[in-house]
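Comment thread on ticket #2218

A.B. wrote:
> Attaching the input chain for the structure job we discussed in standup.
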Amino acid sequence: MPKSLSPETIQIVKASVPALAAHGTDITKSMYARLFRDDHIRELFNHANQGESGSQVNALAAAILAYAQNIDNLGALGSAVERIAHKHIGYHILPEHYPYVATALLAAIEDVLGSAATPELLNAWGEAYWFLADILLQREVEIRDELLKRSGGWNGWRDFIIASKVRESDVVTSFILKPKDGGRVARHKPGQYLTLRFKLDNGVEMKRNYSISSGPNDSFYRISVKREAQGQGGSRYLHDEATVGTLLKVTPPAGDFYLPDMPKAPVVLLSGGVGLTPMVSILETIVEEHPDLEAHFVHGALNSTTHAMDQHVRTLANAHGKITISSFYSEPTSKDAAGLSHDFDGFITADWLRANTPLHQAEFYLCGPKPFLRALVPALAREGVSSERVHFEFFGPSDELLAA
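C.D. wrote:
> Ran it. Output below, let me know if you need it in another format.
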């Protein structure tokens, strides 16, 4: 492949932006339909993201559009490329899988655009696809090589067992995962996730990403999972059916959301609901490795019935001495009282953050459901917090060009 895209390809792809804006979701629907005709390709995907909401179809359409819009400024897509590469590590997507996506994407463009999908357009998109694919493949090789160099590192699916289950709240349970072979695990970067593969009792195979909620260590991972009443049943299986000793397939820790090795500024950890899980991993790391780092752990929950791991994080804060803990309940029960069960009623706001955190010096880490992020990420921007200091992880599909 060329080291740069030809000017003709750039021009043609840029010219296709209006068509992609108008028909992008139709193209991605057609692409997925074609991919899923092949069982071994279908099995690579997380089908929770392919449900009735169409979230993955829309996310992929937006990603393709963004690629076309920035085809002459690919530096703007650096963070998206990193995120996609890590997702591919998690789902064990390999170089031999890329041609299937290329074939399906180009056929979908031709199918949806009809006569507008000229040979020149299809050739340009074929070149553009493989140019991006080469960037991703190179980055994925680097990530896999780095994982193998770690003590306890591995690639692909590895057998783990559930060593213990701990009920953290009415809706959240923690699972301690250890390798079946008794070996070491690769130390993760605090904030990263695991990808699990398991079969439900009806034979349906699930793949799910879960943030690691323990600090880095050599012997186990902890994930803390919310039981979801709706959906395809992955979390219900773990809560209701999986027991100590249950076998799970696990790929290595992945994800571009994590605390750096040497944080240089105060840290504010903002979470909503079960979004606290990577924050607990970060908090344990701060206590273990950064005794002089100022940190603020700010968490929003419905009430005491759903609030997980509160005593654990407060114990960590007391052991450290430079960590503050603040909890907000948006729907406190009759047994909850601000100052006793939690710190504040209501929601985390920019006004509160301005008054209680080093707003213009800190690095902000956010994780939670999309409404939580849609409220706080723009609020921080309006307060003048630069985007370089705002790091966030969210649930569900993102703008992934080769999303699983």
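A.B. wrote:
> Thanks. Noting for the ticket: The longest strand covers residues 158-167.
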